[in-house]
Each structure stands twice: as structure tokens, then as C-alpha cells.
Design goal:
CATH topology: Chondroitinase Ac, Chain A, domain 3
Strand content: 35-45%
Structural class: mainly beta
Order of helices and strands: HEEEEEEEEEEEHEEEEE
Largest sheet: 7 strands, antiparallel
Helix content: 10-25%
Number of helices: 2
Number of strands: 16
Number of domains: 1
Shape: globular
CATH architecture: Sandwich
Length: 217
Amino acid sequence: MIRRFLTTACALVALGLVYACNSERSVAPAVHLGRGPAGLASFDRSDPDVDTVVALRRSSYLADDISESAFIGPEGGTISIDEVGARIVFPAGALQRRTRITMTAKAGWNVAYEFGPHGITFDAPVLVQQELSATVANRVTDAIKVRAGYFQRNLDSVFLDQSQSVARVSELRGIVLERPINSLVADFYISHFSGYILSSGFAGDGGSGSDSTSAPQ
């Protein structure tokens, strides 16, 4: 009799604990703890993968898209769009097989690029470079605020305003500044393809502010 009573009591206590845990889980506020591009934990009240930023403007309007393509293999290679001061550099080993790569500078004021084939990933970090002399961030004080963000769908879908100056992006990361003789060059590293837009800072207080400011190892 005593053994049966103890067994029943233990079962009731266990059920009570399960109910309490589930009840707490249903009413507790959600806290998102994600990881920024550098692999460091970051806190964002809304979505840890999305930031609201101000798009970086070109110093002159780009009337049409400009695309350059090349076949790049495991040995690596470079594609440049000289008209906008941008290039993408594949190190040896980034690609496993020879692939036709396309880089497109998007028309308009914003410093934005699409890369193809979409969805392709790399075995080593791929470098994207932007000469900031071709943008409004042509001083060191402006350049240190520049970030690069990823967009998965078409460029128009990321903007939140009619002037296309505020955008929602993911995988936000900082840039590394080089100092050639005549211009600043912003470097950032990517691990997969779709689209990337540069920003001149956060819009309001949106965004977690997590970024990667150094070359990946």
C-alpha cells in the first residue's frame, strides 16, 4: 500500500513539473540570441538575422546594370567592373570546379551587386572590394561606418521607402579598409552568392550591430 502511494505521488509531482514548464514557456517573452558573421553571440529584440540600414550611395548615378562574367576554377581568379570601382577575388580552393561567375552592378544610386549563380557556396572566403572614391563615403570618417549586407531576393524587395534609401538586410558585416595612394578600398568577405548592398550606417536604432571587421581565417 505504501509503495503504491509513493508511486502515485511521484507520478503526480512529475506531471505538475511538466505542466509548470509548459505554462512558463507559453507566457515567457521570446528572446532571440543569434550569431553574427564573426560567430559571436548577438542580441536583437526582433530578428537576429536582419538589420535596418541606410544604403550607401554612389558618387554618380548608374543608368543601367553592368555585368561582367568569367569562368573561374579551383585555381582562383578575379572579376572587375572598372566603371564602379568594384571587383570580386576568388582565392585558390574557393571553387571545386570551373564555374561561370557573373557579377552585376545594379543600376541606380545605391552601391549594390548581384552575383551568380545564386545559391553557390565556397570552400574558402571570397573577397569583394569596393573603391570608396566611387561612393559618397570617400573620407575615412565616413568609410569606418560602411557595412555590407546580404539580400536573398531581388534588390527592390529590400527597400522600406520610396526613395530606396533604407533597406532590410541580413548577415551584416563590417569592412576592412585598405589605403592605396589615390583612394580608400573597402574589403569584405562572403561565403555564398546572391546579392549584397553596402550601407553607410544603421537606420535609427535598428539592428544588432554585430559584424565581422577582419578577414576570416
